[in-house]
Amino acid sequence: MNWIAMIISGLAYFLHILVDTFDWGTNFFYFNHKNLGFGMLYSKEEVDKIYISFKNPIAYFDFKYYKNKTVLSLEIFFFILMVFSIYFFSPKFFYLIIFYFLALLLHILRYYHLKKFEQNK
Residue 83's CB: how many other CB atoms inside 10 A? Predict the structure, then answer.
């Protein structure tokens, strides 16, 4: 019963990464600055046109993600589902939520850094 919460949390994270690989690609761990995946939303020509309007091309994906209310709502829903499932099914693993907040903090700091960088054009 303890692993149910871990499986639900892992499934939510896996689906998030999987969907990213299909729509515009995923930059795993930000090491190589190259998106991997199918990138089915945009053709190569469209991506090149989009990137021209940004000083840092990666900013496009962050801005598109954080300005989409549907995506943010789904993220909040899955976070609440994760917290409740950990709390009810395996409370001894509740400390793992700290890792979620650390990852969220890194993403938000990156977003605001890119926003500040783009505003100083």
Answer: 15
